[in-house]
Design brief:
alpha+beta, 190 residues, single chain, three-stranded mixed sheet, two-stranded antiparallel ribbon
């Protein structure tokens, strides 16, 4: 973000980047706990962007570990502005991972195996398809997906054949319908 010489913050000045960052203390969030320790984790969301992923896909623990190793995301203007919008792969989504990567990946997978109740999801916050058939996944769509998953609205998951992308079948009517039927399947948007 842009800071004027007098200390005024200008969130609309995009001279350096269009992807501003800020640090906010936990105590300033109304609904934040005092600590980051959780008694239990029930859901893991891996966030990515890219036209070949559905808006949401339920993953096995093996698939979640593989996606963490792949670390596929989209470069932002905050990283390398010359590459903004391009797909990149960064191990565990973290360019600063230290130590043996195989040990790191296996430790993550072991944690998932020891906690079989953890549900894993791949969440696409970008778009599906390309050209005239591209469908933007808006913030309200993502919030609807998360709300439906966390409140039990996406409970009828089916496995798709290898030539299609796995996806969720929406639960009760009115729960989660960000796109007309099938528009979140990449195979139907190309």
């Amino acid at each position: 973000m842009w800071i004027e010489p007098d200390g005024t913050i200008d969130f609309f000045n995009m001279e350096r980047t269009s992807n501003g960052r800020a640090v906010v203390e936990r105590r300033d969030f109304m609904h934040a706990a005092q600590t980051i320790n959780a008694d239990r984790v029930d859901n893991l969301f891996l966030i990515t962007r890219g036209s070949t992923f559905p808006a949401v896909a339920k993953l096995t623990h093996e698939e979640a570990a593989a996606f963490m190793v792949l670390g596929q995301s989209m470069e932002s203007s905050a990283g390398d502005p010359t590459q903004a919008g391009k797909i990149k792969n960064v191990f565990f989504y973290d360019p600063f991972v230290a130590g043996n990567r195989a040990e790191h990946a296996n430790l993550f997978y072991d944690i998932l195996k020891e906690n079989p109740h953890i549900q894993c999801y791949l969440l696409n916050t970008g778009f599906v398809g390309e050209g005239g058939s591209m469908r933007d996944i808006r913030l309200q769509d993502t919030m609807g997906i998360l709300d439906s998953i966390l409140r039990g609205g996406l409970d009828e998951w089916v496995y798709s054949p290898p030539d299609e992308t796995p996806c969720a079948h929406c639960g009760p009517p009115g729960r989660f319908h960000p796109f007309p039927s099938g528009e979140t399947l990449p195979a139907r948007c190309f």
